[in-house]
Design brief:
The complex is a heterodimer of chains A (about 210) and B (about 110). Chain A has about 210 residues and is mainly alpha-helical. Chain A is about 75% helix and about 0% strand. The termini of chain A are far apart. The longest helix of chain B is centred in the last third of the chain and has 24 residues. The chains are: A mainly alpha (about 210), B mainly alpha (about 110).
Chain lengths: ~210, ~110
Amino acid sequence: MADTAVATPVAHDDHSDHGAHHTSTGLSNNKLAMWMFLGSECLLFGGLISTYMLYRGRHSENLGPDQVWDIPFTSASSFVLLMSSLTMVLAVTSANRADDRNTKVWLSVTALLGALFVAGQVYEFTTFYREGLGFTTSLFSSSFYTLTGFHGVHVTVGIIMLMSLVGMISKNRVPGSKAETVELFGLYWHFVDVVWILIFTLVYLIPA
Amino acid sequence: MTATDTSAHDDTHQEHGLSDLGYVKIAIALAIVTAIEVALSYTQDQLGALFLPLLLILMGVKFFSVVLYFMHLKFDNRLFSVMFYIGIVLAVGCYCVALASMHFFSA
């Protein structure tokens, strides 16, 4: 009872904690946990980006970033991932309106754009490998493949989660608040996009 | 609050944030900023010392646009912002110290 009395004003002031009136903070525990997870992910990607920055100059004469990068291609990939953030946020607003049909459409489009980005990354890795840049070729290549590979795995996991969510919405098997579930998936997806914004500038656009 | 009330609230998840058109405008702005970033990377010789700060500022603009608007941090409870920014501050602080100890900035 005391919890409800404390929590209710906070919940209605912030419009951020749907279906969370039973918690002591008045906020959704699921959403709080997701934000904590994303905060911890900052440390993971911070470590990987720092390692790359440290080793980006450690390569042979003809297999460095300036020789292998294809900026127009990577820019197109970045554009695709940015647009997937737009479709994701449109899925969230559709879910807020309890519009299941549009939610599924936008989630599917987001997964498709994510798959296009991953396909581009696979093509890029294959091209680099054919040019002689293997995982163990240099410290530069190891740190580059680890960083971008980890990001690619995050996108891939996101695609699997999105498709699962589409299936769950179709069968009406989403536990709890559907809108909040879509919003949590959205937070993860936007975080993956935010990390790519950093990688694109720090890794691809700033010369070694 | 009864279970029925909670359920009703869940089904009509309250709208917060921008309209769909607002999100489209932000996405267009993000695409334009990305194009400017790419254009800058081709003119780094002309820009000289301005190149790096400009690129980092544009990166920051894109980063916070997504975090504040697409991730709704601007409209949500401050506790969510605290959770996220603690992670960022810890990461930036910790790894800047680590890089400095390896003479990254002096090199």
